[in-house]
Specification:
Blueprint: E1 2-6, H1 23-37, E2 41-47, E3 56-60, E4 63-68, H2 85-99, E5 103-107, H3 109-125, E6 131-134, H4 139-146, H5 156-166, E7 169-172, H6 175-183, E8 191-193, E9 216-221, H7 230-242, E10 247-252, H8 264-276, E11 282-286, H9 293-298, E12 302-305, H10 315-321, E13 326-329, H11 334-337, E14 344-347, H12 352-363, H13 366-383, H14 386-407, H15 423-430
Helix pairs in contact: 1-14, 2-3, 3-5, 7-8, 7-12, 10-13
């Protein structure tokens, strides 16, 4: 099968740890590679954000990354990319004349707009192009938790549900997301729940561990944006340190700015650490390549992942694959992946006292930590390998292709208004 992936802001080639580079990049890269191992050909279409990038890059055997001209060839926040989506759609559609995909799988809502636009144009002169979509995050959830801090374009409020209703198949990464999609009017019969995966050969319990400076070590790993709740983690660790617990916190990840020394979120976190009186116990290590993460995970007693909300969350999978228990907010995808009392513990988001209490209880019980860590590794082996995820995704693809080709058209799009590649954007602007 020839598979066209569209991931407008999250390239498999990106450096992880920045504000717009994280779990989606890992997901697209790993899923594409795993699908190629199953004999498929994959092209990932993403936006050119550097003038020196070649038009096409071989990423892995059977996987190419195609850089499309859509907006300036420079980094642009994903929340500012909507005006460039028609060009992205046109670029993908043009390349399909050579690639001739059997299906397109879009990632994130703007990629969905591009995929549906290109697929509708393709269907004018060719067979219907089946579209499968993965949201990775939902605007309605983001607005609920961030309110006025949400920087999404206003058009997301209606364009995102439209993608869900018009796509031929939806891959939701957790049961909470499937519930939210049904509330947005997405047909439950089009939704398949398939989690993200983890590289079980890279993230393992065995191997070298980073040296520690205290009796206990806890980690926070991920993009440094306020919703990730790292400030709450710092406050909880500081409270324990003030009670005499000999522990250290390592924070891994970068902020929105290229220079971490001037990034506002990093400045805020440094301020929290200083005011807590426990700054000596807290290290903001910055961005780290994936290659170095297993060594760091293995050095930890616990990994703390306490966001306000989380569409899925790759970090808990990596930690559990390394045999480390996870303390996670009981939100979004973390409810599915981290089993409370079996592979880790759930805590309320933004609750410093609750987090500190759970961390203290686990640090006091090495036997319980070992049990949770071993269970986490077994859970990853049984359900979260990328080969398992790719096999489940392939089954979804084949079901969608058979249904669309059998019907002669994408049923969900049959009554949709024809789109010239810019009509969707113009229509959304008219509603402002």
């Amino acid at each position: 099968m020839r598979i066209a992936m569209i991931s407008e802001h999250a390239s498999p080639l990106a450096t992880l740890g920045g504000v717009d580079a994280g779990g989606q990049n890992v997901h697209v890269a790993a899923l594409s590679t795993a699908l190629a191992r199953r004999g498929h050909q994959v092209r990932v279409y993403t936006r050119r954000d550097d003038p020196d990038l070649p038009p096409r890059v071989g990423f892995a055997d059977g996987v190419d990354v195609v850089h499309l001209d859509a907006g300036p060839p420079a980094p642009v926040s994903k929340d500012l990319l909507l005006p460039f989506i028609p060009d992205l759609a046109a670029g993908a559609r043009a390349d399909w004349e050579r690639f001739r995909p059997d299906l397109v799988h879009s990632h994130f809502w703007m990629s969905g707009v591009a995929a549906l636009t290109a697929a509708d144009d393709w269907a004018v002169a060719n067979a219907p192009m089946p579209v499968v979509h993965t949201f990775h995050a939902l605007g309605v959830v983001k607005r609920r938790h961030q309110g006025a801090l949400d920087t999404s374009p206003p058009e997301r409020e209606w364009l995102e549900p439209d993608v869900g209703r018009r796509a031929d198949g939806i891959v939701a990464t957790c049961s909470d997301e499937a519930f939210e999609l049904r509330n947005l009017g997405v047909d439950r019969r089009s939704i398949t729940v398939i989690p993200c995966g983890v590289d079980l050969d890279h993230f393992t319990p065995d191997g070298p561990a980073d040296p520690r400076r205290a009796r206990y070590r806890v980690l926070s790993v991920g993009r440094l944006v306020p919703r990730k709740g790292v400030g709450t983690v710092i406050e909880a660790v500081a409270a324990l340190a003030q009670q005499g617990v000999d522990l250290e916190l390592i924070v891994v990840g970068g902020g929105a700015e290229a220079d971490d020394r001037t990034d506002p979120e990093l400045e805020r976190l440094r301020g929290i650490a200083e005011r807590s009186g426990a700054a000596a116990r807290i290290e903001l290590r910055g961005r780290l390549p994936q290659a170095e993460l297993p060594t760091l995970y293995r050095s930890a007693d616990l990994v703390l992942c306490t966001p306000w909300y989380e569409p899925f969350g790759i970090v808990p999978l990596e930690a559990m694959a390394c045999g480390v228990p996870v303390v996670a907010s009981s939100v979004g995808g973390l409810i599915d992946s981290v089993v409370d009392g079996r592979t880790g513990r759930h805590v309320p988001p933004r609750d410093v006292e609750a987090i500190a209490s759970v961390v203290q209880s686990l640090l006091d019980d090495e036997t319980e930590r070992d049990r949770l860590g071993a269970n986490g590794r077994r859970r990853m082996l049984s359900r979260y390998s990328w080969d398992r995820v790719a096999a489940d995704t392939e089954r979804c693809y084949r079901s969608v292709v058979a249904r669309v080709r059998g019907a002669g058209a994408g049923v969900a799009r049959a009554a949709a208004e024809p789109d010239d590649g810019a009509t969707t954007i113009r229509r959304s602007e008219a509603r402002r």
